[in-house]
From TrEMBL:
Keywords attached to this entry: Cell membrane, Coiled coil, Kinase, Membrane, Transferase, Transmembrane, Transmembrane helix, Two-component regulatory system
Membrane topology: Multi-pass membrane protein
Organism from which the protein derives: Anaerolinea thermolimosa
Origin: domain of life: Bacteria
Protein name per the record: GAF domain-containing protein
PANTHER family hit by this protein: NITRATE/NITRITE SENSOR PROTEIN NARX-RELATED (PTHR24421), SENSOR HISTIDINE KINASE NARS (PTHR24421:SF37)
Segments traversing the membrane: 18-41, 75-96
GO cellular component terms, semicolon-separated: plasma membrane
GO molecular function terms listed in the Swiss-Prot or TrEMBL record: phosphorelay sensor kinase activity; protein dimerization activity
Major localisation: membrane
Coiled-coil region list: 202-277
A Pfam family matched in the record: HisKA_3
Length: 391
């Protein structure tokens, strides 16, 4: 019996562990409850009061760098925090000719899938005038009235996301309080809207740079492929022919010196022609005369080199009015188009004459023609088998 009493005295009695833990758990539970309830109560109270923490017109909040500093200001976040429960909003961006919701708060899933023509009502007014629009009676708006998430809102504020002639969309805010959007709150939303425009511009610029980089990589890849094709069709074949002729000369030099001398003369002529082909290729890769003297001189130089290198006659007829109105970059594009067309005609048409003309047909419009009098081809047969060709 004594042993049993000792064991019961030294052990845990039923429920005793919870009584001992209460002094330690109670403060934690109290603080946790306060942590959950106090911010919520503060949010509700602030929702029905006007906040005047700082003057939004202060020059300290004008620039992008200061705007980021303002974003780290607790007062700034307090001003947004009291909107947490009741403020609805959406970012609407153009996709094609329609506004679509890219991000939203307090809107239904069906609302976020809707599209807007911005052809009437608040959306049209904000986009046409380029200024923020403060409005009430959202339910009567011809386009926003069908947004379910806005039906309990009595006032709204629409900020157009545009810069110059570039229109990206709108920022839309709405609240059940008809007098919610005070001057201070509108100033704050204007700051957010302007920074949103800057963010969209930066994103568009980055996307343009990525696309330009990819386009330049494609152009360089195509230039490398063209160079490989030209080397294979021209100098590579000529060098192979020279190697064969050298082998013939080596065999004839001890048996028939006269024939060997004739082969050496032919080999020398082939070497000269190969040199001219390589120089012509280098000229077409980067015609320095195009940069220094313009498109007219570059095309005439190309025609002279065609005659000298391939015995191909090319005539060039240009309208000076067109040349004078073309930027140097556009002149370069036109030169490479003409060079490719002339080279294709030389290789495949067997034409005695290739004619190049660039004329102005009417103000602002010019016509480029590259014509030859050689053999033609079946356009349908070529296009049907085009996907099987390597060039």
């Amino acid at each position: 019996m004594q042993g049993s009493l000792d064991a019961r005295a030294s052990g845990w009695q039923p429920g005793r562990q919870w009584l001992l833990a209460i002094p330690f758990l109670a403060p934690a539970l109290i603080f946790y409850t306060l942590f959950l309830i106090v911010p919520l109560l503060g949010t509700v109270v602030l929702s029905f009061t006007d906040w005047t923490g700082f003057n939004f017109a202060d020059i300290r909040f004008a620039g992008l760098r200061n705007y980021r500093e303002m974003g780290r200001d607790p007062i700034f976040w307090q001003s947004l925090g009291h909107n947490l429960i009741f403020l609805a909003g959406a970012v609407m961006l153009f996709q094609g000719n329609k506004l679509r919701i890219g991000s939203a708060r307090r809107l239904t899933n069906a609302d976020t899938r809707a599209s807007f023509d911005a052809a009437e009502g608040v959306l049209k007014k904000a986009l046409d005038e380029g200024d923020p629009v403060l409005f009430k009676d959202i339910g009567y708006d011809p386009e926003l009235g069908r947004v379910v998430g806005l039906r309990n809102c009595a006032s709204g504020y629409c900020f157009p996301l545009r810069s110059g002639f570039n229109v990206y969309g709108v920022l839309l805010f709405a609240h059940p309080d008809p007098d919610y959007f005070t001057r201070e709150r509108r100033d704050l939303l204007d700051i957010i809207g302007r920074q949103a425009v800057i963010a969209i511009q930066n994103a568009r610029l980055y996307q343009d740079l990525v696309e330009e980089k990819e386009r330049m990589m494609e152009i360089h890849e195509e230039a490398r492929k063209k160079l490989a094709r030209d080397l294979h069709d021209g100098p590579t074949q000529s060098v192979a022919a020279m190697a064969m002729r050298l082998n013939i000369v080596r065999r004839l030099i001890t048996k028939d010196a006269k024939s060997a001398a004739e082969e050496i003369a032919k080999l020398e002529d082939l070497a000269h022609r190969t040199t001219k082909e390589i120089r012509h290729m280098l000229f077409t890769l980067r015609p320095l005369i195009l940069e220094s003297q313009g498109l007219g001189a570059a095309l005439q130089s190309m025609a002279d080199k065609m005659l000298e290198t391939y015995n191909q006659k090319v005539t060039v007829e240009l309208d000076d009015r067109v040349i004078n109105q073309l930027e140097m970059g556009k002149q370069g594009v036109i030169f490479y188009i003409i060079e490719e067309a002339v080279n294709n005609a030389r290789k495949h048409a067997g034409a005695p004459l290739i004619a190049v003309s660039l004329k102005m047909t009417e103000p602002g419009i010019a016509l480029l023609q590259v014509a030859d009098n050689g053999a033609g081809f079946d356009v349908k047969a070529v296009t049907e088998s085009y996907d099987k060709r390597s060039s």
